[in-house]
Amino acid sequence: MNWLDKITWTAEGLVPVIAQEAGTNDVLMFAWMNREALALTAERGEAVYWSRSRNRLWHKGEESGHVQQVHEIRIDCDQDVVLLKVTQRGHEPGIACHTGRHSCFYERLLPGEDGQPAWQPVEPVLKDPHTIYAKP
């Protein structure tokens, strides 16, 4: 049995993936992988995801330079979620989100001005995303 066969893949051939920062255990992002992405991640030691919007493999950092070095690959008890323990590397270490933040989970549900719950950013932008993705 191939190690990839233990994963419970969706009907689309994908598995959800959580990237967690090694050391701090901050949850950095959520993405998807197909078999090829997971195999490449294990082989390269860098995160490779499946981009559903682009319909292709996406080597994290290919445009931004914010590469994820993978230290561990784990699966949950149901074998239907993958956890990557990573270190963010690149031009600006510590930026995982395309918004220029440390984590994609930067909004928190808090009371709004009208007293109703509202999503509010609670993490700072570390670098303007327009400068991260600017084409020379």
From TrEMBL:
Residues binding Mg(2+):
76, 78, 80
As its record notes, the protein acts as a catalyst of: 1-(5-phospho-beta-D-ribosyl)-5'-AMP + H2O = 1-(5-phospho-beta-D-ribosyl)-5-[(5-phospho-beta-D-ribosylamino)methylideneamino]imidazole-4-carboxamide; 1-(5-phospho-beta-D-ribosyl)-ATP + H2O = 1-(5-phospho-beta-D-ribosyl)-5'-AMP + diphosphate + H(+)
Mainly resides where? cytoplasm
Give all residue intervals belonging to the Phosphoribosyl-AMP cyclohydrolase domain. Answer: 29-106
Q: Which superkingdom?
A: Bacteria
Q: Which UniProt keywords apply?
A: Amino-acid biosynthesis, Cytoplasm, Histidine biosynthesis, Hydrolase, Magnesium, Metal-binding, Zinc
Subcellular location, in the record's words?
A: Cytoplasm
| GO molecular function annotations of the record | magnesium ion binding; phosphoribosyl-AMP cyclohydrolase activity; phosphoribosyl-ATP diphosphatase activity; zinc ion binding
Give EC number(s), comma-separated: 3.5.4.19
Q: How is the cofactor bound?
A: Binds 1 Mg(2+) ion per subunit.
List, separated by semicolons, the cofactors it needs: Mg(2+); Zn(2+)
A GO BP entry is: L-histidine biosynthetic process
Q: Which family does it belong to?
A: In the N-terminal section; belongs to the PRA-CH family.
| PANTHER family per the UniProt record, alphabetical | HISTIDINE BIOSYNTHESIS BIFUNCTIONAL PROTEIN (PTHR42945), HISTIDINE BIOSYNTHESIS BIFUNCTIONAL PROTEIN HIS7 (PTHR42945:SF1)
Subunit annotation: Homodimer.
Q: What is this protein called?
A: Phosphoribosyl-AMP cyclohydrolase
* Species the sequence originates in: Sphaerotilus montanus
